[in-house]
Amino acid sequence: MTAIDDPRVQRVLRLPEQDEALWQSDLERFQRGDLTLTRQSAGEASIKAAQRLLIFLGYSTSSTGAFSIDGNFGRGTNRAVAQFQFEHGLTRSITRDPLCYACTWQTASQNIVGIPNAKLTPPTLERMLDEALAMIERNEVMCGDFEEAIFHLNALHRGGLLSCKAIETRYGAFVDQGIAGVEAEGIRIVRNWPLAIIKQETGGIVRPRFEQHLLTRLSNGDRKGDFVDLRFRSMSMGVGQILGDNFKRVRAPSARRMYLSPIAEQVAQIARFLAGSSAVADVVSRSKPKEADFRTVARYYNGPGYEKHHYHESLATWFREFDAIAAAA
How far is the CA of 150 from the CAs of 3, 153, 284, in angstroms? Predict the structure, then answer.
């Protein structure tokens, strides 16, 4: 394998603080081609490296649809490997039907057992590594920037979210760029709104989520539709956690392009999504919102069950905290 020798690919596979001796041992196993990861085999370090690679390539690794790095080759990681193999013609034993198994939102993680066991064999691993390197070379990576993609990948691995102050520091300039961009489209939005959405939805860490029930529904409605496209449409993504199926609403060419969008464009997508409702568009143009305004945005962004999640209260808290940060600057 040559891709695995690339230092950028090695950054995809491990945390910078990971034990060098352990990493070297895993690297030698990869290079010898003796690694066959299955749901029943391989060590935690190797599985985490594989999960990081799968996430970098855009695949969910948890049966819940989360993008997680836990060292467990469970049903979610098995699904990711199976999806990759199917999409790249690497297997005849896994077809579209079991990857689009019948389920609802409530039963998706239970019915995942219908996907056959997959093996991450050396040929599959080599193809994954080659794909990762090609994505890096083309700069077709999450958030449209390799360093940004690595930041979020490492943050997913370590766990933890950003404070409001850290979000302002990291994303403030991007928020200003995104807002300036949509102003030319006739959209006016006070910057605290996308900042509060970012804090509430992702805590400043891009952590996509795959919805199996949506993939199944989309595939059933379009049996000849491109599987990769449907998979990206079945994911919520970006700092605003917007569902890929909304790509037209946020004026993206495709769901995959949403996934690859730079942070400033992701902010613009949040603004466009909010502007999809005239009532919400009016609210987010206000710099001094009332309690009812937070409810309006919460209902639109989080759905009718927003009260159960205290979504409106959290939005209000974050909005005011960003106000305080701006006042202290």
Answer: 17, 5, 32
